[in-house]
């Protein structure tokens, strides 16, 4: 702050709108002019035109030869030590050519200076210049400077053109009073964190405990909207103390993230209580900054510790305990909660006066009522095979067990229970008792079958329940209501022989348990014809059927070969419609089969040939993808005679190999019998095992072979049956045994017996026609 002093000058420093302003008022061109300038602190002076004598201040006068008007030099407060650097340097007044030096008033807060009624006369300076004495009376009040601060107040030279006046001011300085330390002033300050459930933020409220509240920005704006687990340092200060107290704020986590929960294990909840503070969500606060206290009835943990749970044992069952717990964060209470905890049900008493009595299917159980009623009773009965239990009401004292098994020992047990967090069972009482005898149940799985034409085997399994001490099986054989046979045995196995042929019989079987007879079980059985006559008849029927089938198959095969030959010689130039070119051939009745055959075979089989040639070589609408797979190529004898996908014979897969189910064979429908026949190529050496696997899986009984194994020095088919000298040969899992070989002029008959690894076997006939080439036609007379 600078100001020129003259007899017409007044200098004022005032606080305007919270800002310290210095006003220099002087006369200018016949009027007053106010000049404002900013300052750090307001020191009030009253300046008059009379001479001023202030002790300690010196006014330097310029020589009278100076053409400029005389000016008053700046004055300064001297002998004020600087506490910061420990110096006691005194500022010297500036020279006439120096610029005015501003006063440093930053450190004058809280200080006071009193200057009153000071008068001083400056001695005459050397050089013979005139002297003028200025007297000033002023009541001056200023802020007392701190002992560590040095202040400089400069007064600029006057603009008057009169003779230079000399002012010798005198200054009186009062000793500074030391300020109290803020650390001591606010040593009792406490922090309260106020949580906002909506914003999830904290506001901080400071409790000064009677001291003046802090007014700094740190104490106002920085105490609102704090995030959880954040740390903030604020300066707490007041003009009456120094330096500021540094207060560390450690914001706790959100209150919803801590819940007081019951951690008591259900198994011990009848005599124990466990309470625990559970962290619901994660946060960054250090868990070591939390401490806890617990109070539960007479049991408590009042001293804060880092244990976040309490475990109480030896309590009374079904009793209420009031608990209270607090959580502290950095020593400040964070959250508290009360909880009413009830212990669980205890173990009930043991039933008394327990009695059991039994009949055939019931057991009556009684006991005395308990003094302290439980939640209920569990009554169990157990025999050698099963156990069952039932839940009874708490006021029950008798129960009847029904639908029990006769003549069975039961172990009866009874205990009380209480249902709480877990089921708590009391000690059980028990008894063992056997039910009475009863009629046995009927025998099971009665099997009656003929052992021979006039003998019967009878067997059965024991009844489910004998219901008595012993078991004897009885058999009755009746015909027309008349008892023919009566047998008994300890086991259910009977052989009834020498019965009449072609007679219906009733077979009755029942059991006796030593006291009661069980229900009878009956089956019908009819004796058979004489077996020899039946075998002869069946053999004749098989032979006739086989011959007829062989003839038909051979004719079809011969016609197919002829058509194949004709197609090889000439190639069709125009595609034909597969369905349109087929001839419509009606089924032939068995009574006119021979007559129809003679008619169609006449004229070198012209009608048969026409029917055969109407069949396309390949039906274009049917796919043959499976036969053309690379893995199946070596299983086909001819590349142009392949089975269609829709009617080919599929074998069972071996070890999951999809290629193992293929064989060059197709199903052929019979008259109103789908898939009655199978047409297959003569097996090759590589496919003999697959051929016999097909025979076994399809249960074929007749094989008609319309070609020889070798024709014209060409191998047409592998010999897939054993010779009479060899006897038996194995083809994979199928064993083939030749029983008979019969040779006729135009064909041979092999009677084979095939057996699988399972042990099952059956008879098979193989007819091999001895034609001379693929194109010979079998004479109908043969």
TrEMBL record:
Residues 608-755 form the Tyrosine-protein phosphatase domain. Residues 439-531 form the Fibronectin type-III domain. Coiled coil: none annotated. Its EC number is 3.1.3.48. Pfam families: CD45, fn3, Y_phosphatase. The keyword Flavoprotein does not apply. It is an enzyme of class 3 (hydrolase). The keyword Transmembrane applies. Keywords: Hydrolase, Membrane, Protein phosphatase, Transmembrane, Transmembrane helix. The chain crosses the membrane at residues 533-554, 752-771. One of its GO terms (molecular function) is protein tyrosine phosphatase activity. GO terms for biological process: T cell receptor signaling pathway. SUPFAM superfamilies: (Phosphotyrosine protein) phosphatases II, Fibronectin type III. It catalyses: O-phospho-L-tyrosyl-[protein] + H2O = L-tyrosyl-[protein] + phosphate. Residues 79-107 are annotated as: Disordered. This is protein-tyrosine-phosphatase. The lineage of its organism: Eukaryota, Metazoa, Chordata, Craniata, Vertebrata.
